[in-house]
Write a structure and sequence with these properties.
The chain has 356 residues and is α/β, with parallel strands linked by helices. It is built from 14 helices and 11 strands.
Length: 356
């Protein structure tokens, strides 16, 4: 009997130990499992949160469009009017402004340096920038107006120079590779005057104006609003009326912006076009905007608005591309640009080149 009790007690001890160990192991496994699940859930939650944060930041960054502007033109007027910002914010696009820049060259540099995404320039400096290897593309265009008075060769009121042929042997201020140099060369070409017979003096508009007024140069090939300022405030006069080869206006786009955010870029270009159409119907308002933006007198602002004509921007069609290609090829022939520019491939990849 005692032997049986001892045997049973020993059995109970063994059984209890085994049971306790099993329970303990199960409990530890449960805790480990719970911790693992909790860690997994937290990791997933943190991952989802990080992903959402990165996505939000990326979306916010991608939905910003930076508009660079010169003194004058559609972009600074759109900035003053404010409708463009209101229109784009409804599409979850934030507008930032960069400027003002004194000329196309500095504006294009800001695009090239990733400080702006869209800017307004003439076709000559735009093509020159692309030819120089700047990562730019053509967004929308303002077609030439043969009757526009927005470009001219100016002389002082008492100058003996009366016509283009009188420029032979004279100094003419132009912006290198820009609209001024193009105008001068086209005028000389039309008059059959060798370009070597006229000395080109490369100056920015801010330097060319005093050079003309002080007599350091004999003439100045330039555009609005500098023409009206010179005529009305410094008694300068034109020796050319209309342009022998009217130029396009171009809304130039930073190449990476067009590739990465085509929807945002297209929306901004469309809004700028609509601003232009509004201004065409409200020319007095356009003059008022110039007074505020450029601190011009009312008389100068009204003449600038009249001389420039309509501000109508459209996406380029095949006809526009062909005309711009002709200009680019001429610039290469004149050795104004270092290499040929293929305008077709220089148009921004926005799928917007249908004729309008």
């Amino acid at each position: 009997m005692n032997s049986l009790k001892e045997h049973c007690f020993e059995y109970k001890q063994k059984f209890s130990a085994s049971t306790i160990i099993a329970i303990a192991m199960s409990f530890l496994a449960f805790i480990a499992s719970s911790c693992s699940q909790k860690t997994s859930i937290n990791t997933t939650a943190n991952s989802d949160s990080s992903s959402k944060t990165l996505t939000t930041k990326s979306t916010e960054k991608n939905n910003v469009i930076r508009l660079g502007y010169q003194k004058g033109g559609i972009i600074p007027i759109a900035r003053q009017r404010g409708e463009l910002e209101h229109q784009l914010v409804t599409q979850n696009i934030k507008v930032e402004w960069s400027g003002p820049f004194d000329r196309c060259a500095t504006l294009l540099s800001s695009l090239n340096g990733n400080r702006a995404d869209i800017g307004g320039c003439g076709d000559i400096p735009s093509i020159s920038g692309i030819a120089a290897g700047q990562p730019l593309c053509i967004g929308s265009v303002q077609r030439p107006n043969p009757d526009s008075l927005s470009n001219a060769i100016l002389v002082l009121g008492d100058s003996p120079i009366r016509k283009p042929t009188d420029l032979v042997g004279k100094k003419v201020a132009v912006n290198q590779g820009g609209a001024g140099e193009y105008l001068l060369l086209k005028v000389l070409e039309k008059e059959n005057i060798p370009s070597s017979k006229v000395q080109r003096v490369y100056l920015s508009p801010n330097d060319a104006a005093p050079a003309l007024y002080q007599g350091s140069v004999d003439a100045w090939a330039v555009w609005e609003p500098y023409i009206s300022i010179a005529e009305l405030e410094h008694k300068a006069r034109r020796i050319t009326t209309t342009h022998p080869a009217p130029t396009y206006g171009i809304l130039v786009v930073r190449g990476d912006a067009a590739k990465e955010n085509p929807v945002v870029v297209k929306a901004a270009l469309t809004a700028l076009s609509e601003d232009g159409e509004w201004l065409n119907q409200h020319t007095n308002a356009a003059s008022d905007f110039l007074v505020k933006e450029l601190k011009l007198s009312d008389a100068v602002a009204k003449q600038v608005t009249k001389n420039r004509g309509p501000e109508s921007y459209v996406f380029p069609n095949t006809g526009d591309i062909a005309k711009l290609q002709k200009t680019a090829d001429w610039l290469l022939e004149q050795k104004i640009i270092p290499q040929r520019v293929d305008i077709r491939t220089a148009v921004c990849p926005l799928e917007t080149t249908a004729a309008r």
